[in-house]
Write a structure and sequence with these properties.
single chain; about 400 residues; alpha/beta; 18 helices; about 35% helix; CoA-transferase_III_domain
Length: about 400
């Protein structure tokens, strides 16, 4: 794709324009979700580009392949937001936008000169989504936080571990910046809801401010942890690979060193599993009759299942369990994901041509809307690829005026 000739947006959010003043993960993830569904996103990057361009394994001269997906479907403009002239440019861009998404520390936008009042004056009805560690108010408002902090204070980090009796190692990280992504997901949902309230038939036309905290976003995903403590005073503890309330439901070893997850929670499924194992007697064993007894005797049950799975290769087990209609899967690595026919068939794994990296595998668009699916219109662009286009097209600046801004260090 040419930097100067992006294809037209398609999807349910086509016609919505979003200004992103975000960096790292949460705000850019929010706007990527919106862009995937058709929104036009103008991303303001700092000089040198978004730090995510340098995260992970890199290609010399091109940066990190993650950026290809993380920044896709967005137009990139590089601007020094600390420069006094940046405020007037941001306000000018906001005039043509429906929403603004940012993830600076609370109050930082106002300290830049971008108060709610100025933004509203520039664009009445503007939706402003603030994403921060602890929220825009409260006792912890000004504390520094990243996704991992949100995961810890929201309760996820403690539970992501083996039971205390099994391991004294620190609680493990989920493996991705899940706290940031959950906050970005809630912000995208909030922007869509605010746009609906503003614009639907009989809508009030009013702008709204969204306050999304990483900590609260994680906490909201913690199922019955808090209600159980409130009612019973019980603290939920890590359960490792198992589900504490259902059995069998764990990861089991295979003959070729992989792991296979089996969910035999209900009585009919458990009976099918035991027949496949050649142990139909287990379904009638007094220790395992009904889920409650299986949970009580899960150590012995998992030992029996693990001894059986250890005699087969992972692929063979996966096929056998599928035929027997027992929920199961290999614990996928990136290699299995990339080759999986279900992901490929539904467009969830796609090859995208990127000028910087060649063919790059991207995750597809979620949610899947068959009648109006959105599109991966282009991969993450180079930093500042659309600076001149945006300044000229959105603000009507001449080439000479843009050159002067560049000379002053306002844009790059």
């Amino acid at each position: 794709m040419s930097d100067a000739a992006p294809p037209p947006p398609s999807g349910p959010l086509a016609g919505v324009r979003v200004l992103e003043l975000g960096h790292f993960i949460a705000a850019p993830f929010c706007t990527r979700l919106l862009a995937d569904l058709g929104a036009e996103v103008i991303k303001i990057e700092p000089p040198g580009g978004d730090p995510v361009r340098q995260w992970g394994r890199q290609v010399e001269g091109a940066g990190a392949p993650w950026w290809s997906m993380h920044g896709r479907n967005k137009r990139s403009m590089v601007m020094n937001l600390k420069h006094p002239r940046a405020v007037e440019i941001v306000l000018g861009l906001a005039r043509g936008c429906d929403a603004l998404v940012e993830n600076y520390r609370p109050g930082q936008l106002a300290r830049m000169g971008l108060t709610r009042e100025k933004l509203e004056a520039a664009r009445p009805g503007l939706i402003v989504a603030h994403i921060s560690g602890y929220g825009q108010d409260g006792l912890y408002r000004d504390r520094a936080a990243f996704g991992v902090i949100g995961e810890a204070i929201g309760g996820l980090r403690y539970l992501t571990n083996h039971p205390p009796s099994v391991s004294d190692l620190p609680p493990v990280r989920v493996g991705v910046s899940i706290g940031d992504s959950i906050a970005g997901l809630y912000a995208a949902f909030g922007v869509a809801a605010a746009l609906w309230a503003r614009d639907r038939g009989g809508g009030d036309g009013r702008g709204r401010t969204l306050d999304v905290a990483l900590t609260e976003s994680v906490l909201s995903m913690m199922e019955g942890m808090l209600p159980e403590y409130g009612v019973f005073g019980s603290v939920r503890h890590p359960t490792g690979a198992r589900i504490a309330t259902a059995a069998p439901s764990s990861a089991y070893p295979t003959a070729d060193g992989a792991w296979i997850l089996i969910g035999g929670n209900s009585d009919p499924i458990f009976e099918r599993l035991t027949r496949l194992m050649g142990r139909p007697d287990l379904a009638e064993d007094p220790r395992f009759r009904g889920n409650a007894l299986r949970v009580r005797n899960v150590e012995e049950l998992d030992r029996l299942i693990g001894a059986w799975t250890a005699g087969y290769a992972a692929r063979d087990l996966d096929r056998m369990l599928a035929v027997a209609d027992v929920p199961a899967t290999i614990a996928y690595t990136a290699a299995e994901i990339a080759a999986d026919p279900q992901f490929r068939g539904r467009g969830m794994v796609r090859e995208v041509e990127d000028p910087a990296f060649g063919a790059v595998l991207h995750a597809g668009i979620v949610p899947h809307l068959p009648d109006d699916p959105g599109a991966i219109r282009w991969p993450g662009p180079r930093a500042g690829a659309h600076t001149d286009e945006i300044l000229g097209g959105e603000l009507g600046l001449s080439a000479e005026e843009i050159a002067a801004l560049r000379a002053e260090g306002v844009v790059a």
